[in-house]
Amino acid sequence: MGKRQLNRCAIVAVKHCNLSCAGCNHLSPLFKEEFIEPIRYKQSVTILAKHVEFNTLVLQGGEPLLHPKIDELIRISIGSGLARKVHVLTNGTFLHKMTDQFWDEVDRVELSAYPGVKVQEIPPERMKKVKLSYLGTFNESFSTQHTWDADLVQKIKNKCNIFGRYCALSRNYFYKCVISSFIPSQVKHQVLTSETVDGIMLEENDEFEGKLLGYLDDKRPLKSCEFCTGTSGRSFPHTQANKMDWLSRHDRPVGEMIRRL
Fold first, then answer.
1. SS3 readout for 198-227
2. CB-based contacts of 36, cutoff 8 Å, min separation 6
3. Orientation of helix 70-79 relative to helix 38-48, angle to 10°
4. pTM confidence score
5. Which run of H or of E encompasses 55?
6. Cβ neighbours of residue 44 under 8 Å, at least 6 residues apart?
7. Element holding 126 (H helix, E strand)
8. Each residue of 133-192: pLDDT tens digit?
9. If you write DSSP's letter for every residue of 129-148 in order, what string do you get?
């Protein structure tokens, strides 16, 4: 049996960021500085590549260009056999510092440009690899309040364009939803029993493939879904927020944060 074919996988190179966007769905303003170790990363992608293949690996964060060994992570990603293409998702504030190796090896740079955030000029020959998205608005992404309405959670999940389509690899855990790799570690609630509650540990044994495929085929909402707006959140103008009170603006019911379903 061939490998399971999947769409996108985020490689969480770092979780922290130099910005503090009010609508960050990766909760980056809450995370302290931490970098994925290339050796551990290579071990993880080697295990995962035996069972699945993605169209695209996306090195992201937080802000992935904060990682001092981003070139090495790109090289490992290319050699892993885990995906056909390797992209980097960035706010662009450090792009001018990237090496020739970075630009030569990455397939595409997905640049999210925000109002008021300065990005230094990039040479025209480099811009050929850049896909620019200007993000003047964000969508409400999650609540610190638990959603007890199971029907609402299911509706949000059913309309979500991320669940099962945009996976994540963080440390030595795999997640079928990238957002579920961030919410449990920062939203404190009894149903979020651990930081990895919605992921599956990567293991080098005969049972792992069955566990992985069973996990991917399980269509029930994750625990993080009970706090998440999926892709149904209301939009609002982009702003930079104070990290000290960043979380407090998310202390509202999910039902108030979503568009009509």
1. CEEECCCCCCHHHHHHHHHHCCCCCCHHHH
2. 11, 12, 13, 14, 67, 73, 170, 171
3. 20
4. 0.96
5. strand 52-60
6. 169, 171, 172, 202
7. helix 124-127
8. 999 999 999 999 999 999 999 999 999 999 999 999 999 999 999 999 999 999 999 999
9. TEEEEE-SEEE--B-SS---
